[in-house]
Specification:
Length: 429
């Protein structure tokens, strides 16, 4: 959302067809010679490519406000150039007459005509607030007045669009909601409200509008199952809200929301990598390690060189209690990429964690296996030598423990824990 809209860069409306987009692009390239304006040209080129690609355009469109096409409509007599003071005087007089003679059939039509005359002048001057008051007054007098209805609606949507583009989001929401009352089925307005409410931090209201947008898009997709653009629009909404759920304060509810959003994506694209990866990652956070393993095994089979998948699979195995499978997974990854720091870090942290856990449950020999394997990677880590020494001491091998504590002091001469341990061993000798 932070990136400038491709439509704004090319100066075309959302919904522009391919020819309009191409014409706008060609004009801008003529204006900004690629050799003289390289940086600007690259921005223009990127915008053009985003709008040419159905998937990229879908992503663009999901978070871009819709501009509703339409014109203000006036009858010829409403455009007549009567002097404004005369129009204002007639309005005042007719309002007085209406109050005094509410049943006079001639008063109301005359008042409506003059209100429309004034609204025309206000609209010409772009005094939208004043024009809106006039059209609302007309509709109070005649709820069926189509020109006033039309003009009021487009004043709401156009002014809201202007406010939204200038970050006056609260005003935009207020006007679009008024427009929606006039046209409750207008999907473009509902979509605009979803974007605006989210930007304003109105989560519940935004989700209500987003859910309606997606529901309507899905209905359309049922009619046009081959429409890849529409399919990608739906996917982008679910992807966006899945990501938002993961970024929020982690609770069982937000994690479940994230999984549900990503599972919805798989209904439309069963091979979506991001959705499958995030489902697995969220299952990990929910401590559903066996389920995560199954998801990641399938993903790994399809993307064997993706080290992010490999790394997460290793942790899934580890947390599921399948230690050797975890380390074997990481070892195979290091064969592919021996310098991968993320994999090395995972092995280090995992070996240390497993070793400590085994030590605490009195599996000393197994703990030592992990510590010594880790020692191959970190021969001069005093913390590791201390863990080995402590494990040996617990096992009853005081001589070997003493040697390891002395090694700790060689690496960290001021280590108080090692000094105390050495003193205790010698005291008991």
């Amino acid at each position: 959302m932070a990136e400038q809209s491709a439509y704004a860069i090319l100066n075309v409306r959302k919904g522009a067809d391919e020819q309009e987009i191409k014409r706008a692009y060609v004009e801008l390239v003529k204006r900004y010679d690629p050799e003289k304006h390289t940086e600007r040209f690259m921005v223009i080129q990127s915008a053009y490519e985003r709008l040419r690609d159905p998937r990229k355009r879908a992503k663009e469109d999901v978070f871009t406000y819709n501009y509703l096409k339409g014109e203000f409509v006036f009858a010829p007599e409403e455009k007549e150039e009567d002097p404004l003071p005369e129009v204002l005087a007639r309005i005042r007089d007719l309002e007085r007459q209406l109050a005094e003679q509410p049943d006079n059939p001639a008063v109301k039509p005359a008042l409506i005509l003059n209100l429309m005359k004034r609204s025309y002048r206000n609209a010409q001057k772009k005094l939208w607030a004043e024009a809106i008051k006039d059209w609302q007054a007309v509709l109070r007098l005649d709820p069926t007045h189509q020109r006033a209805k039309n003009n009021l609606f487009f004043a709401f949507v156009h002014l809201a669009y202007y406010y939204a583009l200038h970050d006056l989001t609260d005003d935009a929401i207020r006007l679009w909601e008024q427009a929606l009352e006039m046209d409750p089925e207008n999907l473009a307005i509902i979509h605009n409200l979803a974007i605006a409410c989210e930007q304003a931090g109105l989560h519940d209201k935004a989700m209500k509008y987003w859910n309606e947008v997606v529901r309507r898009w899905k209905m359309e997709l049922d009619k046009r199952p081959d429409d890849e653009y529409l399919r990608n629009c739906i996917i982008e909404v679910h992807k966006h809200h899945g990501g938002k759920a993961l970024q929020s304060v982690p609770t069982p509810e937000t994690k479940q929301e994230a999984v549900e959003q990503y599972r919805e994506i798989l209904k439309f694209n069963p091979n979506d990598f991001e959705a499958r990866y995030q489902i697995a990652a969220t299952l990990m956070e929910e401590n559903k390690f066996d389920e995560a393993v199954e998801e990641l095994k399938k993903l790994h089979a399809e993307h064997p060189k993706n080290l992010d998948v490999v790394n997460l699979l290793g942790w899934a195995y580890l947390n599921a209690g399948k230690f050797e499978m975890a380390f074997n997974t990481w070892r195979r990854a290091l064969i592919t990429d021996p310098k991968n720091l993320a994999i090395k870090d995972s092995i280090t942290r995992a070996r240390l964690a497993v070793g400590k856990k085994l030590k605490e449950v009195v599996h000393y020999t197994q703990a030592l296996v992990h510590f010594k394997e880790l020692l191959k990677l970190m021969p001069n880590a005093w913390e590791l030598h201390y863990e080995i020494a402590d494990t040996l001491l617990r096992k009853g091998d005081r001589r070997a423990a003493l040697a390891e504590f002395q090694r700790v002091l060689e690496l960290d001469p001021k280590n108080k824990l090692a000094k105390k341990a050495i003193a205790d061993i010698r005291l008991r000798a």
